[in-house]
Amino acid sequence: MPRSLTLGNGNMLVCLDAHAEVRDFYFPYVGLENHIGGHYVHRVGVWTEGKMRWFDHPSWHITVGSRDRSFVGDTYAINDELGLQMHLSDIVYNEKNIFLRRVSVKNILPRSREVKIYFGQEFEIYESHRGDTAYFDPISDSIIHYNGRRVFLVRGLYKNKNFDDYTTGIFNIEGKEGSYVDAEDGLLSKNPIEHGYADSVIGFTLQIGGDGEESLYYWIAAGETIKETHELNEYLILKTPDHLMKSTNDFWNAWLNKNHFSFNCLDDKIVTLFGQSLFVIRAHFDNHGAVIASSDSDMLQRGRDTYSYMWPRDASFSAMALDMTGNSSISRRFFEFSNEVVSDEGYFMHKYRSDKSLGSSWHPWVRNGEFHLPIQEDETALTIYALLEHYRASQDLEFIESLYNSLIKKTAMFMVEYRDDLGLPKPSYDLWEEKYGITTFTSCAVYGALNAAAKFARMLGKQRGGNNYASAADEIKNAILKYLYDEQTGNFYKMINFANGGIVYDKTIDMSSFYGLFAFGVLDINDQRLERFSQNIVDRISPRSPVGGIARYKGDLYYRKNSDIPGNPWVITTLWFAQYLIAKAKNVDDLDAVKTWLTWASKYAMPSGTLPEQIDPFTGEQLSATPLTWSHAEFVITVVKYMDKLEEMGICNKVIPSGTL
Where would I find the GH15-like domain in this sequence (predicted)? Predict the structure, then answer.
């Protein structure tokens, strides 16, 4: 099930499903140590007049959204069978590691009733049940789950009183379904402690008058010791839950609106999704510098691993989105992270965990019995290319100087030397992580990165290095145009390889090949080769379906359900085409198609603004990892480029002058 809402503060990341129930709880790293694991759940349930209905029951109609222009969950749940309406406001406190929910319950019947609200916790601490304990803590009037250096304190307040019912138990072992079953009769057994596969449930009894409404608070404080969670709990009670809710709302509202973008001619849905996308990117950005691809652990149910790693590729685009929106202090951490994990030889590996250790991979070190680097060279290139965007936004030359020898020079020299006899980058895995060869996209990215490195070198007075990088970039550009262009079709090859003394061409039409040519400046935006290629993109890899959009490449099988289409539309590739239209636009009318594509993206986002990796071309269903951080980054980048273009045309200012606010 896709994640309908993600909330985080850089240390803690909490994900809710379509039932507004917590399915992922990462701490103390974003994307590392999921203490629910995606296969367990923190339930919400309601008991009244002899009926128990957990939020996953079909009698509930639930819409998980987010508050406009702030990083606050906004969920509405209606149950006509129970005669109740509920509103949940959710936050991860921006200052401390606390997940907080405000739950309002409205009785839509004319008579007074007793209503019990239950919250069930199924933790898998350290992603293993070995050593887990759950117990009622009379010191803090809370339930505490702990294992070693991971502690989670669960508590709440209703009319300044603690929960009035609780139990701990075991689940998924010894024939036990879980303690949530204990709540079915409206009473819990108050078992004070359990270990192993330990879970818990707490309950609040509300007396609600006819057509009346009552509210309560529920929270989980996370720490490394019981003492730390006690202190967080005391802090929350002292400050009050209302204060934490308000201050978190105000902080994120100010964080989002600090640039005062004009958003000229863009409708409200696009503007709202722009803000929601920035919040998703920030939630997936660990405070130590990693930017994970997705927090959706349901991917584990379909494959061998999740997307909760940092790919330097995805992270580079996310860093650029943050830099383009005035958040360079955050993106800087990614480049510091990169500086620490880059290899001595100057390349990045496939992916990394948020603690800077190496992530899992399917790229082998040996091909046909010979040693080969298991890398996607575009990831090395994109990091340096994104660093130039960071400098343009921050103008922090001292930071660039501090990275020059250890990151910029090291990677640039690798890219200069890691080339074949044609002058192109040597074979590596493509950005889609599927094929091995010399790709147009990677070649273009390396060209862009070496030009960026040349700018840095010359800026710092290192003319020899700058000339070396620029010369290599020119050689790569010439080789791209000579060896990777197919004059007969007007396309650029997806990739080439060598066999039996000759070149083997992969003529697959790939959106990344097209994007790389204009994004990194290999071809002028008005070059006729680019124009011809763009028409082939529209004709050959745009699914002829009700949804539309642009696929990755012709014949893409990943999550494809129908062989009659070239592949599912991806948010990333569709927005790449919109960025091409922006770059090519000569007047404001040329930008109408861009707004159409931005509207398309907002149409297929969830009410919370969550964007997926790809979309079912016939139903519009969100497919694969949801949310995908890269999708949100491309949406932000596209909107900013649209505003830049309007300013360039003299239509309006990108930013509203502060004196007019």
Answer: 288-586, 597-637
pLDDT score of 2 = 86
Nearest CA to 573 out of 519, 620, 530 is that of 519
CA–CA distance, 77 with 84 (Å, rounded to integer): 8
Nearest Cα residue to 213 out of 119, 100, 102, 120: 102
User: Within 10 Å of residue 110's Cβ, how many Cβ atoms?
Assistant: 9
Q: Is 478 helix (H, G, I), strand (E, B) or coil?
A: helix
Q: For residue 505, what are its two tokens?
A: 């061409």
**Amino acid identity for residue 627 in this structure:** P
Question: Distance from CA of residue 300 to its chain's centroid?
Answer: 16
Coil, strand or helix at 387: helix
**Phi and psi (nearest 5°) for 239?**
-75, -25
| Residue 111 neighbours by CB distance under 10 Å | 10
Contact of 61 with 68, CB cutoff 8 Å: no
295 within 8 A of 308, measured Cβ to Cβ: yes
- At 34, the pLDDT band (50, 70, 90 cuts) reads very high
pLDDT tens digit sequence for 385-395: 999 999 999 99
Number of H helices, E strands in the chain: 16, 28
Angle of CA points 581, 582, 585, to nearest 5° = 80
Torsion angles phi and psi, residue 48, rounded to 5? -160, 140
State the Cα–Cα distance between residues 661 and 651, nearest whole angstrom. 19
CA distance 379 to 433: 11
Q: Tokens representing 147?
A: 């294992």
Q: Which residue type occupies 566?
A: P
What is the predicted pLDDT for the residue at 275? 97
Report field, pTM of the whole predicted structure over 0.85? yes
Structure tokens at 411: 């990677």
Distance CA 6, CA 307 (A): 15
What whole-number distance in Å separates Cα of residue 613 and Cα of residue 184?
A: 38
Residue carrying structure tokens 């330097």: 312
Question: CA 403, 407, 412 angle in degrees (round to 5)?
Answer: 125
What structural domains does the chain harbor?
5-255 (2.70.98.10), 258-284+542-656 (no CATH)
- CA pair distance 96, 90, nearest whole angstrom: 15
CA angle 619-621-626, nearest 5°?
A: 165
- Helical H segments across 346-462, by residue range: 377-394, 397-403, 409-417, 440-459
Q: Which of 651, 632, 635, 643 is nearest to 293 (CA)?
A: 632
* Token representation of residue 381: 């290139």
Rounded CA-CA distance 295/626 in Å is 8
Q: Rg for the chain (alpha carbons), in Å? A: 26
CA distance 441 to 487: 18
Structure tokens at 338: 């990169």
CA-to-CA distance for 237 and 232, rounded, in angstroms? 9
Give the list of residues 6+ apart from residue 28 with CB closer than 8 angstroms, or none: 11, 12, 97, 222, 224
Kindly report whether the peptide bond that precedes residue 28 is cis, defined as omega within 30 degrees of 0: yes
Distant-in-sequence, close-in-space partners of 434: CB < 8 Å, separation ≥ 6: none
Give me the count of residues in the chain.
661
For residue 29, give the H/E element and its range: strand 22-29
Tell me the one-letter amino acid at 579: Q
